[in-house]
Amino acid sequence: MGAVLFFLLLSAIYTRAAAQQRNSTITLGSSLTPTTNSAWPSPSGLFAFGFYQQGNGYAVGIFLAGIPEKTVVWTANRDNPPVTGNVSLLLTRDGWLNLRPPQGQDINIVNLAEPASSASMLDSGNFVLYNSNRKIIWQSFDYPTDTILPGQRLTNGKELFSSASESDHSTGIFRLKMQSDGHLVQYPVNTPDTATYSYWASGTAGVGKNVTLNFADDGLLYLLNSNVSLKNISTGGFPKDGRINLMKIDTDEFAFVNPGNWTSGCERNFTAQSCKSVDGDSKYTMKAVENTWWEDVSYSVLSVTTREDCEKACMEDCNCEAALLFADRSCRKQRLPLKYGRRLLSDSTIAFIKVGTSTSIMDGVPVDQYSKERKKELRTDILIVSVLLLGFAFLVLAVAGVLIYRNHVWAYKKISENGNVELCEDVAPRSFTYAELQQVTNGFKEEVGRGAFGTVYKGTIPKNQKVVAVKRLEKLLAEGEREFQTEMKVIGKTHHRNLVRLLGYCLDGPNRLLVYEYMSNGSLADILLTADTQPSWDERVGIARDIARGILYLHEECETQIIHCDIKPQNILMDEYRCAKISDFGLAKLLKQDQTNTFTGIRGTRGYVAPEWHRKLPVTVKADIYSFGIVLLEIICCRKSVDWSLSEDEAVLEDWVYFCFEAGQLGKLVGDEAVDKQKLERMVKIGIWCIQDEPSLRPSMKKVLLMLEGTVDIPTPPGPTSFLSAI
Predict the structure, then answer these.
(1) What are the catalytic residues?
(2) In the beta sheet, which residues pair with residue 558?
(3) 630 and 608 in contact (C-beta within 8 Å)?
(4) Does a structural domain hold residue 590?
(5) Domain CATH number, residue 605
(6) How much is the CA Rg of the chain, to the nearest whole Å?
(7) Which of 157, 216, 569, 696 has the fewest Cβ atoms within 10 angstroms?
(8) The Bulb-type lectin domain covers which part of the protein (predicted)?
(9) pLDDT, the chain, mean
């Protein structure tokens, strides 16, 4: 009856609003939060797209906003857990609809083939995204969840999936499919589209192929290529007739997996240590339920001759909780929880359910007396066994001591000989021996990079064939063994999509090696300076944002603040998707103080080192901001910061950029490339602000990221002081 009222109310409201169907435009840069502006309404206020309360958190979806109770009709990422109140939903300036947590990576709300230019929440309940030609590139009507609205179609092959409950809109256990044969059929999820598994069908076969279910304005459902009106669908919902509640079989033993939610199935409300008692007597008996079967997957199928054989097979198997005996004499064993139960009087299938015994007499003796006698026997047995075990324990301790010592001494050798080098990223970083890494790198044969800290080799973990990069440090370390391990664990705790992940390390005598995830596209320097791989303008903007997010995490968001001290294109690596990731972060803390000069800019050459390094002033996170600014200018222009093969005016990039900025000739920086002038000017301004001589004038990395995302205005920067030209 509730379903009837809902559809009648929905149809009436829709009829009122349809006469003046309008749309409201949601522009790029618009955002929502769960606790303030939580939704984008349709023009009439009938529907809204945004956050709604789900349990103790929030979900994103479409709901009826024109009635007191928010009735949800569509849910995004419905099987993801609810989010907290500090997330935001953005139609980003580059055209993606994302859910953004305070930390970590954006989550796609919808999958788009191209960026959107705007969006609308229509009075029909349809949320749409448009491209720059005002063409619809995505709409919620094409991806129904558990509800079909007036004007919406369920086309051939599409399905509705039930919700787990009224308050939890995650995928439930039923699906309603519009089949090509004209049948609208309800099945359990994860079952074939065959009559055996159908719970309900519309009985509309023979109306032709490629049928479509349409929810019309009169509140009824129609098949578009027939005259069959499926009125019963609009009032019935998902039928529950015929389902079997295992609770009714034995109320004292079974309980719902999730209290209050029958769709989750039933399980035992206690845990038995064994399916048999100490003396071999069974703790269970089998209860038969005629004309009943469950559609859950069986883990074992036997051929038997009698029902007693099937009962016995389940009784003797501690993993078996139920057995189904079919007409073909096949006996199928199943575990709990059981779902999708069906009772059909015309079906001869018998279900045998294993239930606990409630016998009060054992072998003709009352249970209490029987238990006391058993306890006396056990005490005598325990005393004898204890004396024997006590004497044996001393022998075991001596043998164990020898074995533990031997295992400790030869463990690494055995691992190396057997090739059992395994990498577990969940507990990274793990400690390797030098011999293990020799095996991983095949004797350090394939060199893939060389830098100030040492040489990088490509390797493969034999156990899981994971490709890794192994860096052999070639400089003396200031820290001792304990300090080195501590620093490795600190660095290993940094997990961010824009940082190269440290997977392990080696501290073996004088050998110091680091094991990183392997970046298949090399460094940023490789792609910037190679004509065939130079990124497009949009890719360059994305790379700059990736680097900024990684530095922001090091400066403000990780457990221990890390100043990189060596931001440059060679230390920015590109993964298989050309996502930029920062490497070698935190290593400066492990090196001697005077060693920083070994990787700063050479005297007389423009580099990436902030002026305060050479002035022996205190170094803060602003040193990384300066280096980022130089890298940003290199990304914009796809060239080195210093190139003496060019004319004197253009050789030093930061001077050349500021000259073009003042002269209003920024087009010279990108040559003939078609680039949005406003975006180019914005990027150049950010770079100039970052390379200011005074650290106090440089913005924080959080401010830099906001500038790159276009959410804050950028004032005109002063000219940077050229430190290297003055020395």
Answers:
(1) 566
(2) none
(3) yes
(4) yes
(5) 1.10.510.10
(6) 35
(7) 696
(8) 25-142
(9) 77
